[in-house]
Fold this sequence. Notes:
There is one protein chain. 7% of the residues lie in helices and 46% in strands. By secondary structure, the protein is mainly beta. The strands form three sheets. Strands 11-8-7-1-4-12 form a six-stranded mixed sheet, with no helix packed on it. It has a four-stranded antiparallel sheet with strand order 5-6-10-9, with helices on one face. A two-stranded antiparallel sheet has the order 2-3. β5 and β6 (78-90) form a beta hairpin. It is globular, with a radius of gyration of 18 Å.
Amino acid sequence: MSTSCNLSAAIALDCLDAIGGIKTLWVSSDFDYTTYTAGATAGITALTGATGTFYQIQVAKDVASFTETFNISNTNGTAFFTQEVTIPVQHLSSAKRAQIQLLSYNRASRVVFEDNNGLYWICGLTRGCVVSTGTTTTGTAPGDATQYSIVLQGMEPAMAFQVSTLASLTGTTFTDA
């Protein structure tokens, strides 16, 4: 057996001080880079040749989420990680429709999000993300949501990387809504 996949540290039980959910997120359809360096515990530590613009998609509190599914086949000797970011965009409009349609046509979007614990993560770093599903709904009753809901999905050879700060993605631009 190869020693490259042997455990190298214990996994401790943390305090009860974390909360779920995504605070804010940015999506890029033109992000590119030459190389990245990721530390074993520090996430992305260096990114060279990065270019592109990330656009913020504002979301209400407690509605956006990230899920990463481990896809392991002992029989085939393969492992990959399905990363999904679910983004509800409240209120229908022609302007939002146009941007969501462009995003739906894209083959290699990248997503950076800040979770509710103040940590930044990047999805689709090496292979990109695509819109895997989406809906437009008006609801039925006056209190129902009128929104677009999209799921950006990436299938990556490694789990999503933590990014220390947005500034660590040197060469990229982040445009807030």
